[in-house]
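Intended use. Records like the one below are meant for learning the mapping from a protein sequence to its folded structure. Do not use them to infer anything beyond what is encoded.
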Amino acid sequence: MSSPTPPAYSAPSGTPAPARRSHRSLAATLVAGLVLGAGGVGTAWALSGGDGSADSGAGGDARRSCEALQGFHESDLWADGAKRDIAFNRLGAAAVLSTAAAAGDREFKPLAEAMRRVQNRLVRYVDFSGPEAQKELKTARSVCAGL
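Structure written out for the chain above:
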């Protein structure tokens, strides 16, 4: 005895409405990008290991954080493809490295706090063009200039 064959699936008639992206899904995408970028940087950093040089400690982490921030351009967050991915990953790298620097030396705590505020502003409000976001970014960059 054979089992009955299910009816063939047919697509619904008519054309579906285009999907709309909500701010919530964009924010989730931003968070995922930052987390993945930060995780990738952290993994690469851990696998490369320190060679005992002065640049492998907290000071080196702070300098690399500032280098990543220097390469970050907020206008790239709204670009397509690789340019956007690079911007998210540079911001994530700057945040992770600043946190590592602060964990190694309290001198770098202001850098880590400034980077945390920049990252939180981006995740919370999605729009990075407002005056508060620019203020946070300027603060982080000025902390880097003081190192």
